[in-house]
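Coenzyme F420-0:L-glutamate ligase: structure, please.
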Amino acid sequence: MPRPPAITVRPLAGLPMFASGMPVAQAICTALESEGSALRDGDICVIAQKIVSKAEGRMLALASLTPDQAAQDLAEKTGREPVMAQAILNESSEVLRASPAAIIARHRTGHVLANAGIDASNIEGGESGTVLLWPTDPDASARAIRADLQVLSGARIGVVIADSMGRAWRIGTVGTAIGCAGLTVLEDRRGKGVDLYGRTLQATLIAVADSIAAMATLAMGEGDEGTPVAVVQGAGRWVHTEDGPGAASGLRPVEQDMFR
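Here you go.
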């Protein structure tokens, strides 16, 4: 049996501090060029959600919000500031759990995570009440960045927008694909492969995009490393010509929610 190719992750240094309107794809290609490298067919570019949100102008001054009664009630229940509670409600389709430990919300995109993805770390003004929201449509953002990167590089690549998210019944966060283009999101091997003993696989559904996001996020770091982009090589078998259905295709339908 042939050995699968090695998968490598290389964090990209030399990127600027992103601000609203800055072209993400151009900055990535410029940083690669300064290293004497370039994107190649089959590469996957994993991009931290924060720089995409910054480039799309998704900064929010909490002081600009006027909390309604629902936000006041949520703030009282969880010990949050009412303006933060309002921001979470604005970005959510549903609050699933609320306690002083965490507010678990279903983001408007369908992803379930703490505080609807709102964050103040690594954000200018975060100490004074400025927060960063997710891109309005992370899959659309991934498709747009991929299109620009492919024009600039001439390579057929995949793009993942990643953010760190918690998991039910586990402690800690893991990089997760919230936007995806040109990449297999789920590899369904049920009934299509066998194990080492020749038994047909019955339950093997691989979260490819999430696995790549997790690997890249671990390499990029989540503090002051300053490397919010990583290039993954050796995973070209999951890269496609078409954009594909996006990270949203990996969300479990609400009617299949097993934790209510």
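Notes: The chain has six helices and twelve strands.
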